[in-house]
TrEMBL record:
Alphabetized SUPFAM superfamilies for the sequence: MFS general substrate transporter
Stored PANTHER family: MAJOR FACILITATOR SUPERFAMILY MULTIDRUG TRANSPORTER MFSC (PTHR42718:SF9)
Keyword Transferase listed: no
CDD domains in UniProt: MFS_MMR_MDR_like
Superkingdom in the source lineage: Bacteria
Protein name according to UniProt: MFS transporter
Residue ranges constituting the Major facilitator superfamily (MFS) profile domain according to the UniProt record: 17-454
Organism expressing this protein natively: Caldalkalibacillus thermarum (strain TA2.A1)
Transmembrane spans: 16-41, 53-71, 83-106, 112-133, 145-163, 169-186, 198-219, 225-241, 261-284, 290-312, 324-345, 351-369, 381-407, 427-451
Gene Ontology molecular function, alphabetical: transmembrane transporter activity
Keywords on record: Membrane, Transmembrane, Transmembrane helix, Transport
Subcellular location, record wording: Cell membrane
Any Pfam family: MFS_1
Length: 470
C-alpha cells in the first residue's frame, strides 16, 4: 500500500468549504462549553440532583464519542456529502427539540440527537482534509480547523453565560441551529463520489460502543462496576482478529507509527482538559471571580491560540514536525509549571499561563493531525482518524475525572509536597505539579518514539519489512 495518502480530487472553492468547516467546528465546540455554563440553571428549572443533571453532559459525551469514530469509519464507504448532510440535519433537529423541551427526559433526548449530528464534523473534517488537500498545504488547512476549535473554547463560556443570563438556557439551542446554514456549501462544493462496496462491522461497533459507554460512565460517576468496560475492550480486541473487515483493524491498532501518535494525543488532551477544568475553579476559589468574568479571562488565551493556529499550520507545511511537536509539549509543560508555582501569586500570571497552554496544545494537536493524515492509506484513513479522536476524547475525560479526584483527595488529606506554592488553596499547586509531571512523561514518550522509529527503520530495511504506515 501507499505510505502516504495524496489528495484525490480538488475542491472547486477550497476557501469557501473551509470557511464553512471552520464555522461548523466553532459551533460544535461552543455547543459543549456553552451548556457546561448553563448546568446550574438547568438544575434549578427541573429540580435535579447533581447526579441527574450530569447526564446533560454525559449523554452528549457518550454519543459524541461513538458518533465521531462511526462517521469517520463510514467515510471509507459512503460519500462525505451525504454523511455531512445527515450529521447537520440531526444537529438541527436536536436543536429544535431542545428549544421546545418540556421535560428533562426530552432535554436529554435532544442532547443525544445533537451529539449524533455534531459528531460528524470533527472526524469528517479531517477525512475531507486528507482526501482533498495536497500534503504540502495540509498543515495550513488543519491549522484553520484548530483555530476555530480554540476560538470555540473561549467563546463558549462567554456566550453561554450571557445568553443564559438574559434569555434563558433554552436559547442556547438557537446558536447550534446556525450550523445548518453551511449545508448548501457542502452540497454544492463537495465532489460527487461513488459509494464503495464493503461490509460495515456492526458487531465490532457494538462492542466498542459498550466499552465506551461503560468506561465513560466509570470516569463520570466513579462507580467501579462500570470498570466492566475493560471486559468489552478485551472482547473487542479478540473479535477484530476473527472478522475479515473489522470496525477497526488489528493492522491499525498495532502500527508502529500510528499507535504512538494516538498515545501522545491521549496524554496531551489529558493535560489540557485538566487545565480547562481547574482554571475556572482556581479563579473562583482564589480570586473570587464570578462566572461571567471567568469566561472573559479564558477568552484572550483562546483568541491568541486561534490566531496563532494560522501560522502554526504553515510552519508544519514548511518545516520538520519534530522540533515543533517537542516545542508544543514544552510550552504545555511550562504553563503547568507556572500554574503550580505562581498560580496563587497574580491574576495576570494565571491568564498568561493559560495563554501558553492554549498555544502549546494547538501546536501539538495540529502536528499530530497532520502526521496521522500523512501516514494512513485510503483503506485506514476513516477508521484511523475516528479512533484517534475517540482516544483524545477519552484523554480529556480522564484528565477531568483524575483532576477532580486529586483536588478532592488533596484537600481532605492536607498533604504538602509542592514548596513553591505558598498561597492558600495549596491543592491546586499540588495537582498542577502532578500534571507537569505527566507533561514530562509525554515529552519522554515522544522522544522515545522518535528513537524507536529510527531503530525500526534500520531493522525493517535489513529485513525487508514494510508497515502500511511506514
Amino acid at each position: 500500500m501507499s505510505n502516504q495518502l495524496q489528495a484525490e480530487q480538488r475542491l472547486p472553492n477550497e476557501k469557501l468549504v473551509y470557511w464553512a468547516l471552520q464555522f461548523n467546528v466553532l459551533i460544535t465546540v461552543m455547543n459543549t462549553t456553552m451548556f457546561n455554563v448553563a448546568i446550574p440553571a438547568i438544575t434549578m428549572d427541573f429540580t435535579l440532583s447533581p447526579s441527574e443533571v450530569s447526564w446533560v453532559v454525559m449523554s452528549y459525551s457518550v454519543m459524541f464519542a461513538l458518533g465521531t469514530v462511526t462517521y469517520a469509519r463510514l467515510a471509507d464507504q459512503f460519500e462525505l456529502k451525504k454523511l455531512i448532510t445527515i450529521g447537520l440535519s440531526l444537529l438541527g433537529l436536536g436543536s429544535v427539540v431542545g428549544v421546545l423541551a418540556p421535560s428533562f427526559g426530552i432535554l436529554i433526548g435532544a442532547r443525544i440527537m445533537q451529539a449524533a449530528g455534531a459528531s460528524a464534523i470533527p472526524g469528517l473534517g479531517m477525512v475531507m482534509t486528507s482526501r482533498y488537500i495536497p500534503l504540502e498545504r495540509r498543515g495550513r488547512s488543519l491549522g484553520k480547523i484548530a483555530a476555530a476549535s480554540s476560538l470555540g473554547f473561549g467563546l463558549g463560556p462567554v456566550l453561554g453565560g450571557l445568553i443564559s443570563q438574559f434569555f434563558g438556557w433554552s436559547s442556547l439551542f438557537f446558536i447550534t441551529l446556525l450550523g445548518l446554514l453551511m449545508l448548501p456549501v457542502y452540497r454544492n462544493q463537495l465532489p460527487n463520489e461513488e459509494s464503495r462496496k464493503g461490509h460495515f462491522d456492526v458487531g465490532g461497533m457494538g462492542l466498542l460502543a459498550l466499552a465506551v459507554i461503560a468506561m465513560l460512565a466509570w470516569i463520570s460517576t466513579g462507580n467501579h462496576w462500570f470498570a466492566s468496560g475493560l471486559i468489552f475492550i478485551i472482547l473487542f480486541w479478540l473479535y477484530t482478529g476473527r472478522v475479515q473487515t473489522p470496525f477497526i483493524s488489528r493492522q491499525l491498532l498495532t502500527s508502529r507509527k500510528y499507535v504512538p501518535l494516538v498515545v501522545l494525543q491521549f496524554l496531551v488532551f489529558f493535560q489540557y482538559f485538566a487545565v480547562l477544568f481547574m482554571f475556572p475553579l482556581l479563579l473562583a476559589d482564589i480570586y473570587q471571580l464570578p462566572i461571567m468574568r471567568i469566561g472573559f479571562v479564558i477568552f484572550p488565551g483562546a483568541l491568541c491560540s486561534a490566531l496563532a493556529s494560522f501560522f502554526i499550520g504553515r510552519w508544519f507545511d514548511q518545516a520538520s514536525s519534530v522540533p515543533l511537536l517537542a516545542g508544543g509539549i514544552c510550552l504545555l509543560k511550562t504553563a503547568l509549571l507556572l500554574f503550580s508555582c505562581l498560580g496563587y501569586f497574580s491574576f495576570w500570571v494565571v491568564m498568561f499561563s493559560y495563554l501558553i497552554a492554549a498555544i502549546g496544545f494547538t501546536i501539538v494537536t495540529t502536528g499530530i493531525s497532520r502526521e496521522v493524515s500523512n501516514i494512513l492509506d485510503r483503506g485506514h484513513i476513516g477508521a484511523g482518524i475516528g479512533f484517534l479522536q475517540l482516544c483524545q476524547f477519552f484523554g480529556g475525560a480522564f484528565g477531568v475525572a483524575s483532576t477532580g479526584r486529586l483536588l478532592e483527595y488533596d484537600t481532605q488529606a492536607y498533604i504538602s509536597f509542592n514548596p513553591l506554592w505558598v498561597g492558600t488553596h495549596a491543592a491546586y499547586g499540588h495537582t498542577f505539579a502532578l500534571m507537569a509531571g505527566v507533561s514530562l512523561f509525554t515529552l519522554a514518550v515522544y522522544l522515545l518514539n522518535l528513537y524507536g522509529q529510527d531503530r525500526n527503520r534500520s531493522r525493517d530495511k535489513a529485513e525487508g519489512y514494510q508497515d502500511f504506515s511506514a
